[in-house]
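Batch manifest, entry 17 of 40.
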Amino acid sequence: MKKAKFILAGFVIVIALTGCLQVDTKVNLNQDGSGTIEETVIMKTEFLNMMREFVAAFDSAKSEEFNMFNEDRLKTRVSDFGEGVKYVSGEKFSIPGYEGFKALYSFTDINKIRINPSPEDKVPFGEDADESDETFANNDFFIFKFSKGNPATLVVEFPKPENENEDNSEETYEYEDSTFYDQEMDKLTDVFNGLKISTILNFNNNIKETDASFVEGNTVTLLQVDFSEITKNKEVMKNLEKKKPETMEEFKEAVGNLEGIKIEFKDKITIKF
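Output type: structure tokens
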């Protein structure tokens, strides 16, 4: 069973360190297995300004250097996507209240590509952290298996836990003070509001057949989570806090059919194009 933790844990880590993010990853695939990866990452300007002020308090010369767009870092991240990936371009990008970057990478063989659905490695700080202390292992990636043909076939394998039999039971807490509970939920709402992440596949040839759950035209959505939609529903927030879902099925049960939430619950999907 796939675990909801591979999504939720990454969000908690990022939020605690960096504030609200919006991360969109789009893989464009050609019929020969080559393609591009488009990545858009933005963060609340309010938080970035706060960090700039913090940096300036220690070294005013470095405050202007603190921004989301760091081309040198984007170039070194090619290995994060697998083998044979090349950096094509990058640029600053912003929308009202947010700023960040867009980056474009190319690849020749999607069989060598892996996509991490967690946003914890998308921000330009913490590069010097101990690499051995990573939150996610190799099996926390979307893995692709491609075979040429007419039609060509792509199999997408989803992240799996390292040990299906591990004991992940955690002590649950009941809040006797309902006022305190409501205050904690309000804090979580403020933290998660605006947080979004998505991973989609775009096929440059027509999709002929697929068992994927979320298909629109030639686009397949592997993951789309808008936490703003979750925070609007206090009952869902309570379900997530109380149940602490471990499996993807439990997460789906907790959130229900909310708008803005698309998560593929199969172990793998097949697309012929």
